[in-house]
Amino acid sequence: MPPVLTLIFCFLLFVALRVPIAFAIGLASVITIMQLGLPFTSVVAQMYSSIDSFPLLAVPFFLLLGRLMNDGGITDRLLRFADATVGHIRGGLGHVNVMVSMMFASLSGSGAADTASVGAVMIPAMKKGGYPAPFAVALTAASSVLGGIIPPSILMVIYGAFGNVSIGALFLGGIVPGLMIGFVQMGYAYHVARRIGLKPEGTFSFRRMGVTGLAASPPAVLPILVLGGITTGVFTATEAASIAVAIGLVLALVVYRSIPLLGVPRILADTVVAFSLPMFAVAMAGIMGWLIAYMGVARDVAAFITMVTDTRIGLMLMVAACLLVVGTVLSPVTAVIIFLPIIQEIARMGGIDEVHMGLICVLTLTLGLVTPPYGICLLIATQIGNVSTPQAFRAILPLIGLVILIIIVGIVFPGLFLSLPWLLMPEAFPGR
Predict the structure, then answer these.
(1) Between the chain's N and C termini, which has fewer beta carbons within 10 Å?
(2) Quick check: helix, strand or coil at residue 329?
(3) pLDDT in tens, 266-298
(4) Do residues 67 and 24 share a domain?
(5) What is the rounded distance in angstroms from the CA atom of residue 211 to the CA atom of residue 379?
């Protein structure tokens, strides 16, 4: 059996046997390395080189920042501000759900953290407010994927670090599609509320919006600091993340006093655990990604795809379709590392801008967070809402379709997503 088929067959076999994904990737890679006759030191070397990256240090800092914001009561302040801003509109609880996810995404960069923190409050509230439980679960899970799109995004950090793509340009490029997805989801919430006969509740008050906005404004400095510092070249993504954590500690310990000093070690320990698990998967995926490049799979697959179509739109649609399927069984981070050599080879052969390709890949792979069997955000939301996964998946299908439509629009009209990076970081596009 050719080594590439051995790699694929062993991986699928281990997944079918319910071996954890990270171990399935590692075992399949080791078996293939044995077949190729490569030294076992290649395993250790590739594991180390996969995580020996300065930009990757931004990931634990962003995870820590999200934990500080959640434990520090920031989520509650964001909820009150969102309720004061859009809670009076028909479908108000749905709008609040999406708006809080958009704001929380700019602080945590993690969809799973968004689902757990926002869902714990919003899903019971929406069920009590008359929304069908499957829809409440679906909207919470769907809006939480904004954590992987709206900067700072951990997935964009991974893509930029492994693909040598400007993280700042990816961050800027995620703003427009993130806002588009959020507004479209709010529009769908309005449609559902109208269909089931829910009436608007409460009235709008500038005074209430101002008071709640003032209480929620200090954390708003953090995404501005991160984006502003990176785009102006003052500091890197890792340095921006560390500075944001320092400010977050000041907010939680001094300004809001919502976290006791003795509680900080527990938060740090939990963050280390939360960081170690995906990093182990990153190390394993690094071996498989290296094998794919070593065996020339990236070149062969790219050549085959360009035989089917050689247009920019056609190539990007094929990549997006493939990643949509891949995302159902692999976490976005793992999928990026494994398939990045193929993705970048296709982009090179098709003359596709690397930032544009990165944005489309990130947008597509984030849908894997809400599509079974992986669908970690959907699984978390179903547990909170006490809804079966098939019910939730049926309810989330229209929301997935809306995101896919936005991805297609972004492929056809690249300027829609790239206008901000073109304007603020032109140095990231030397060939333009």
Answers:
(1) C
(2) coil
(3) 988 888 887 787 788 888 888 888 888 888 887
(4) no
(5) 35
